[in-house]
Amino acid sequence: MYDDILVPTDGSDCARRAVEEAVRLATAFDAALHTFYVVDTELSGAEGGGAVVFDELEAEGERIVRDVVERAEDAGVDTIEASVATGVPYRSILDYCEEYDVDLVVMGTHGRTGLERTLVGSVTEKVVRTSDVPVLTVSLPSE
Known about the structure:
Strand order of the largest sheet: 3-2-1-4-5
CATH architecture: 3-Layer(aba) Sandwich
CATH topology: Rossmann fold
Number of helices: 6
CATH superfamily: HUPs
Helix content: 40-55%
Mean pLDDT: 88
Largest sheet: 5 strands, parallel
């Protein structure tokens, strides 16, 4: 059913929960797992010469995707692709889906509501609304 599953991650608790689900699905469907971290150039100051901040965010992204790869390998996933990119996160995710012919995107939700959601926006929400491929959203269990 799925050949290529993408799990974008930012390293948050909710993203780690999405990684668990994506690994489970990749194992069940014998699918390739792609993990992807985007350094947000709109927030990082990367475009304004914040090279130190940019380098730190990129290094953090490398660490985060390396952790996902280790989890997937431990679960027996055979094909794992990991990358770090720069740009606007939701656009970068959509571009990745198109470039790698992704069948399913698995993303965490942060559960923002009200004014915070309006002001900050949601990468997951933007991907859900604009993606040509199915998007499975995963939230943290209720306390």
